[in-house]
């Protein structure tokens, strides 16, 4: 049986607690860096008071704000962020938002450390079916603190995706030194995220669990994390929709996001994520929505060869599997996700969200 579980993608510290951002000054003071650059997109900058609150808490420890994050982490914005980071002599990056904000922080850290102006110079080269050439990014990286407003998983791991605006392709950069030093899940902060954005990002976390469990690299530890995260998400996501102010449901979902990310950081993802990255980069379909739509389809596509693993997924979802074959249990699990999407009020067809 055996297992392999690396600490490469495990943050030094993760806090999930109401009001957690109030302690960020103390956390920064405990680190040696003293010049923090806040990184966020327009949504967080214009529609919430988070940036002002953080500036108020950090005071002189905050030296500037880069609010140029774009959905799907467009490569040119990473170059802009790097310039500002160097100009301000920032020595700590604090990203606030969803996956694109955290990936932007990681991209800035790479360009500052490794040099150059194009993050894609440091990308992983993938050759189907499963050959990955990961460049060695040897220089020390600026520390990163992530404040998660969604359930992206990018707030946890030292891997990131970037979209080339010319080719409309998304490429991956991986370096365990990019794994955030501190991850902050503050459920009260999560309440500032519109519910559709929050629960659709939850379907991204759900997908991380499913693809972990039927990954070729599945193992007991990541299975356990992913199965428990599925249970939490099944309960929390519908509650978020039923009551916009259900802070406990948001907290539960955040715990699930963290567990799912630890799991997939060790088992990696599959065809669903590959397709969702294309849908994001080429058609601009938000990653969570793409995952919600594609997940049941990907499960059915993989069912023939992953039936035994999908029966585990069904059991984790609370489906009665007794008397069912693995294929029947897997089909029931995919059907259950269709129903969950409907309950969450999420789009069901790519053509309704700008896709093909
Ligand atoms: Fe994802």
SSE layout:
Layout: E1 13-16, H1 24-29, E2 36-41, H2 42-47, H3 50-58, E3 62-69, H4 75-87, E4 92-97, H5 99-114, E5 125-127, E6 131-133, E7 144-148, E8 159-164, E9 169-174, E10 182-185, H6 187-190, H7 195-213, H8 220-242, H9 247-267, H10 271-283, H11 287-316, H12 326-343
Parallel strand pairs: 1-10, 2-3, 2-4, 4-7, 7-10
Antiparallel strand pairs: 5-6, 8-9
Helix pairs in contact: 4-5, 7-8, 7-9, 7-11, 8-9, 10-11, 11-12
The protein binds fe (ii) ion.
Fe (ii) ion binds next to α7.
What CATH calls the topology of the largest domain is: Rossmann fold
Q: From the 3D coordinates, which CATH architecture of the largest domain would you assign?
A: 3-Layer(aba) Sandwich
Mean pLDDT: 96
Total of domains: 2
Strand content: 5-15%
DSSP helix count?
Answer: 12
- Assembly context of the chains: single chain
Shape descriptor: globular
Question: What is the percent of helical residues?
Answer: 40-55%
- Indicate the CATH class of the largest domain: Alpha Beta
**Spatial strand order of the main sheet:** 1-10-7-4-2-3
């Amino acid at each position: 049986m055996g297992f392999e579980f690396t600490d490469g993608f495990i943050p030094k510290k993760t806090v999930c607690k109401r009001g957690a951002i109030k302690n960020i000054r103390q956390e920064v003071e405990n680190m040696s860096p003293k010049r923090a650059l806040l990184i966020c997109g327009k949504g967080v900058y214009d529609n919430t008071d988070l940036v002002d609150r953080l500036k108020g808490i950090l005071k002189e420890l905050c030296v500037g704000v880069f609010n140029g994050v774009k959905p799907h982490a467009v490569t040119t914005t990473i170059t802009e962020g790097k310039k500002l980071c160097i100009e301000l002599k920032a020595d700590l990056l604090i990203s606030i938002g969803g996956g694109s904000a955290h990936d932007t922080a990681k991209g800035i850290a790479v360009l500052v450390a490794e040099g150059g102006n194009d993050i894609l110079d440091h990308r992983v080269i993938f050759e189907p079916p499963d050959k990955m050439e990961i460049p060695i990014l040897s220089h020390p990286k600026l520390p990163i603190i992530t404040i998660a407003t969604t359930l992206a998983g990018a707030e946890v791991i030292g891997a990131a995706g970037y979209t080339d605006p010319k080719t409309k392709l998304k490429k991956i950069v991986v370096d365990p030194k990019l794994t955030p030093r501190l991850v902050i899940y503050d459920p009260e902060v999560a309440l500032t995220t519109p519910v559709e954005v929050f629960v659709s990002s939850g379907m991204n976390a759900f997908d991380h669990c499913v693809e972990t469990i039927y990954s070729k690299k599945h193992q007991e530890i990541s299975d356990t994390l992913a199965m428990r995260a599925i249970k939490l998400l099944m309960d929390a996501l519908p509650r978020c929709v039923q009551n916009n102010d259900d802070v406990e449901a948001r907290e539960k979902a955040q715990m699930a996001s963290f567990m799912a990310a630890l799991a997939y950081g060790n088992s990696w993802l599959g065809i669903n994520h590959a397709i969702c990255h294309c849908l994001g980069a080429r058609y601009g379909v938000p990653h969570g929505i793409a995952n919600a739509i594609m997940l049941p389809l990907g499960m059915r596509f993989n069912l023939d060869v992953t039936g035994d693993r999908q029966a585990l997924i069904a059991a984790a979802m609370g489906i009665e599997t007794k008397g069912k074959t693995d294929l029947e249990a897997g089909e029931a699990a995919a059907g259950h996700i269709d129903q969950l999407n409907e309950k969450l009020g999420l789009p069901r067809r790519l053509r309704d969200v700008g896709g093909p």
